[in-house]
C-alpha cells in the first residue's frame, strides 16, 4: 500500500511538472479587441505551445479548445524569447492559457481583450524604471491592482541594457500579474538607455522594427501613437505620422515617446528635433494628450499650442485652453529622481517622486491622475467584474487631493 501511495504521488507530480519557462508578458501589436501577443523566456524544454480558450481549463491542456506554436523565436539579452500572436479573438472577453512544453506545464494565466465598442477604458502611462528595483516593483504591483486595459511604457526600462538588467526587469514585471493569474498588456516605447531599436523589437515584438506604431482602442475611441524619439523625428517617421494622423477620425488622440520636447529638469537638453517636427503636427491634428519620459521628474501642463514669439510664448509654447494639447510625464517608474527645477509659464504642476499616470477615457472626456506608487501593499484591488473605471481604495493621488485633470473636446 505504501509503495502504491508513493507511485500515485509521483505520477501526480510528474503530470503537473512545471514547464521550464518564465518571464511572461503580453503585448498589444494589433487590434486590441481581437489580437494579443504572448511572450516568454523558454529556459529549457522543447516544442512549447500555447493552449488557450474562453473556458478556464486550469493546467489541463486537453480542456483548452485552441492551441498555437510560436510565431517567432529570438535569443536576446540572455533569454530565449518566444512569441505567439493570437488572432480572431472575441472582444471584451476573458481568455485563459497555459504554455506546455516537453518538460511540463506553466501556471494558468488569463487576459481580457479590449472592448470593440466605445465604452470607457482605463490606462496606465509612465516610464524610466531603470535601476531602482524597489520602487519599480511597487509600481508594477499597482498595475496588478488597478487592472488597466493596457500599460503604455515610455522607455528606459533598464540602466545599461545588460543581460543581467533585462532579466531582472522581466522578473520584476511578473509583479504586474494579479494573484488570480490575470495579465495586462504593455505597449512599449524606446528610450535612450535601450541603446538600439533591437532591444524593444526583440523583447516585445513591436509592430515596427523602428518602434513607432499606432494602436486604436474601441471602434474609434482612443487612437494611440508610440513614437521613437531616439531616431530622427523627421524623415520616414514624420512622413508616416503625418499621413496616419491626418486621416485619424478617433474621438481622442494620445501619443507617447521618451524624450520630452521641453524638459522640466534644467540639466536635460531641449528636445528641439521632436518640437520642430511634431509639435505643430500634434496641434493641427487635435492630439489631446502626450506622455513623455526621460527627465525623472513629474509634470502636467495646461493645454498648450506651439508659438513663434509674443509676450506669452514660453520656450515655443503658449497656453490654449480651447484646442491645446496636455503634456504629462516625465518618467519616475524607479529611475533616480531629479529636481523639478525648470517649470514654464504653462506648467500646471511639477514634482519629484515615483509615479505613473492613471488615464480614463470615455466618449465625453479624458480624466488623468498622477499616482504615487509607494506602499502598494496597502492598496486594495479592483474587481475583475466591475464595469466602472475607478481607482481602488488606498491609492495615493497627487493632484490637489485627488482632483482629476479633465480634457474635453471644445
What Rg is obtained from the alpha carbons, in whole angstroms?
A: 22 Å
In CATH, the homologous superfamily of the largest domain goes by the name Metallo-dependent phosphatases
- Number of H- or I-type helical stretches: 6
CATH class term of the largest domain: Alpha Beta
Query: How many strand units?
Result: 25
Q: In percent terms, what proportion of residues is strand?
A: 25-35%
Tell me the overall shape.
globular
Low-pLDDT segments: 1-15
The main β sheet shows up as: 7 strands, mixed
Considering DSSP H and I runs of 4 or more, what fraction of the residues is helical? 10-25%
> What is the CATH architecture descriptor of the largest domain?
4-Layer Sandwich
The name CATH uses for the topology of the largest domain is Purple Acid Phosphatase, chain A, domain 2
> Structural class, from secondary structure content?
alpha+beta
**What would the average pLDDT be, to the nearest integer?**
93
Separation of the first and last Cα atoms = 78 Å
Overall tally of structural domains: 2
Keywords:
410 residues; alpha+beta; Immunoglobulin-like; Purple Acid Phosphatase, chain A, domain 2; 2 domains; seven-stranded mixed sheet; 25 strands; globular; Metallophosphoesterase; acid phosphatase activity; signal; PAPs-like; Metallo-depent_PP-like
Structure write-up:
The protein has 410 residues and is α+β, with helices and mostly antiparallel strands. The chain folds into two domains: 111 residues, Immunoglobulins (Immunoglobulin-like, Sandwich); 287 residues, Metallo-dependent phosphatases (Purple Acid Phosphatase, chain A, domain 2), CATH 3.60.21. 18% of the residues lie in helices and 29% in strands. The protein contains six helices and 25 strands. The strands form five sheets. Strands 10, 11, 12, 22, 23, 24 and 25 form a seven-stranded mixed beta sheet that branches. A seven-stranded mixed beta sheet has the order 13-14-15-16-20-17-21, with no helix packed on it. Strands 3, 4, 7, 8 and 9 form a five-stranded antiparallel beta sheet that branches. Helix 6 links the parallel strand 15 and strand 16. The radius of gyration is 22 Å and the shape is globular. The N and C termini lie far apart (78 Å). The N terminus is likely disordered. Keywords: Signal. InterPro entries: Calcineurin-like_PHP, FN3_dom, Metallo-depent_PP-like, PAPs-like, PAPs_N, Purple_acid_Pase-like_N. GO terms for molecular function: acid phosphatase activity; metal ion binding.
Amino acid at each position: 500500500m505504501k509503495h502504491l501511495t508513493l507511485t500515485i504521488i509521483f505520477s501526480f507530480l510528474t503530470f503537473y511538472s512545471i514547464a521550464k519557462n518564465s518571464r511572461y508578458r503580453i503585448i498589444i501589436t494589433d487590434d486590441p479587441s481581437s489580437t494579443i501577443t504572448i511572450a516568454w523566456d523558454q529556459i529549457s524544454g522543447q516544442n512549447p505551445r500555447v493552449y488557450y480558450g474562453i473556458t478556464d481549463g486550469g493546467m489541463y491542456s486537453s480542456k483548452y479548445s485552441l492551441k498555437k506554436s510560436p510565431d517567432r523565436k529570438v535569443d536576446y539579452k540572455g533569454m530565449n524569447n518566444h512569441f505567439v500572436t493570437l488572432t480572431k479573438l472575441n472582444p471584451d472577453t476573458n481568455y485563459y492559457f497555459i504554455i506546455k512544453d516537453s518538460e511540463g506545464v506553466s501556471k494558468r494565466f488569463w487576459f481580457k481583450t479590449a472592448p470593440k465598442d466605445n465604452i470607457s477604458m482605463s490606462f496606465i502611462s509612465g516610464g524610466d524604471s531603470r535601476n531602482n528595483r524597489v520602487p519599480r516593483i511597487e509600481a508594477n504591483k499597482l498595475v496588478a491592482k488597478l487592472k488597466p486595459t493596457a500599460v503604455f511604457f515610455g522607455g528606459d526600462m533598464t540602466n545599461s541594457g545588460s543581460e543581467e538588467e533585462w532579466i531582472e526587469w522581466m522578473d520584476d514585471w511578473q509583479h504586474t500579474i494579479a494573484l488570480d493569474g490575470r495579465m495586462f498588456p504593455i505597449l512599449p516605447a524606446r528610450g535612450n538607455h535601450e541603446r538600439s531599436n533591437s532591444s524593444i523589437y526583440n523583447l516585445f515584438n513591436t509592430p515596427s522594427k523602428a518602434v513607432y506604431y499606432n494602436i486604436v482602442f474601441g471602434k474609434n475611441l482612443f487612437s494611440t501613437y508610440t513614437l521613437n524619439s531616439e531616431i530622427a523625428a523627421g524623415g520616414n517617421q514624420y512622413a508616416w505620422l503625418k499621413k496616419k494622423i491626418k486621416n485619424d477620425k478617433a474621438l481622442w488622440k494620445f501619443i507617447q515617446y521618451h524624450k520630452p520636447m521641453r524638459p522640466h529638469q534644467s540639466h536635460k537638453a531641449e528636445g528641439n528635433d521632436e518640437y520642430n517636427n511634431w509639435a505643430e503636427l500634434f496641434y493641427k491634428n487635435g492630439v489631446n494628450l502626450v506622455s513623455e519620459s526621460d527627465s525623472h521628474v513629474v509634470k502636467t501642463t495646461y493645454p498648450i499650442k506651439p508659438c513663434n514669439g509674443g509676450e506669452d510664448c514660453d520656450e515655443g509654447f503658449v497656453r490654449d485652453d480651447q484646442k491645446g494639447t496636455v503634456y504629462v510625464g516625465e518618467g519616475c517608474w524607479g529611475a533616480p529622481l531629479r529636481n523639478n527645477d525648470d517649470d514654464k509659464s504653462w506648467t500646471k504642476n511639477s514634482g519629484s517622486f515615483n509615479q505613473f499616470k492613471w488615464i480614463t477615457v470615455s466618449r465625453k472626456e479624458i480624466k488623468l491622475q498622477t499616482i504615487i506608487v509607494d506602499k502598494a501593499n496597502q492598496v486594495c484591488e479592483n474587481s475583475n467584474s466591475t464595469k466602472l473605471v475607478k481607482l481602488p481604495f488606498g491609492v495615493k493621488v497627487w493632484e490637489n487631493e485627488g482632483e482629476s485633470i479633465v480634457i474635453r473636446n471644445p
